[in-house]
Design a protein that fits this description.
Number of helices: 6
Largest sheet: none
Strand content: under 5%
Number of domains: 1
Shape: elongated
Helix content: 55-70%
Distance between the termini: 43 Å
Radius of gyration: 22 Å
Length: about 240
């Protein structure tokens, strides 16, 4: 998604500017007052650890590059789970009198999480490229295809992580640019006109296709692990 589109949807969420309110920090607007993500909300089957016992350049490359790509991707998944709760809070922040404090807290949290995601992306891509290139370490066409297929699945998961990270960074930037002090929020954060709109048009998670992106990531990661585990079992031994 383009940054301009994200700014547009975020502007829709925000209150219509009126007379600037008189604001004093509220003690109740602490980070602890916001939603804590429910770890059980998106259960997933634990991924297998890829371990090879056969000593060969091909098998060593599988273990090294596959795990070096997957481990930070799983760490990113945990970040996305944390952000999931923050987006829920964002959808509801204008329901509270201390919405300005909540906005600032959520903006700070989102900037931190998007920074973590951005820093992880380039090294992950490097490991996926190395894994794909390692297919040539075998002369067996079956082994070569399996290695490339594992890299392809990781690449698909990476693509969705990259897209979602980019969109979240755009959202964080739009929050930095928006002057939250310039207006007061109507009841529930919505004008009478806003309340006539479908719920999905007022939900930042729906606009980001957040759930669909997470499912695509999960499916691709599991597919990659299944292929890599088959390689380790059939060609490299397994413990």
């Amino acid at each position: 998604m383009y940054l301009s589109s994200l700014v547009l949807v975020f502007a829709l969420m925000l209150p219509v500017p009126t007379t600037a309110p008189s604001v004093s920090p509220s003690p109740s607007a602490s980070p602890g007052s916001l939603t804590t993500p429910d770890a059980s909300a998106s259960p997933r089957t634990p991924l297998k650890t890829i371990v090879t016992v056969k000593s060969s350049p091909y098998c060593s490359a599988l273990e090294d590059h596959f795990n070096s790509a997957l481990v930070p991707m799983i760490a990113n998944d945990r970040v996305f789970t944390t952000v999931d709760g923050q987006l829920d809070d964002m959808n509801n922040m204008f329901k509270y009198p201390n919405y300005i404090d909540r906005f600032v807290v959520l903006r700070t949290k989102l900037l931190k999480e998007t920074g973590v995601l951005e820093n992880s992306l380039k090294p992950i891509q490097q490991q996926i490229d190395a894994l794909r290139n390692s297919a040539t370490l075998s002369t067996d066409p079956v082994e070569q295809k399996q290695m490339r297929d594992a890299a392809s699945q990781l690449q698909d998961a990476y693509k969705h992580q990259f897209q979602l990270s980019t969109d979240l960074t755009g959202l964080a930037q739009s929050m930095m640019e928006y002057n939250i002090f310039r207006g007061s929020a109507p009841l529930g954060g919505w004008t009478p006109y806003d309340n006539t709109l479908p719920e999905d048009e007022k939900n930042i998670k729906s606009y980001l296709k957040y759930g669909k992106q997470l499912k695509s990531i999960d499916d691709a990661e599991n597919g990659a692990v299944d292929i890599a585990y088959a390689i380790a079992t059939d060609h490299c031994g397994k413990q």
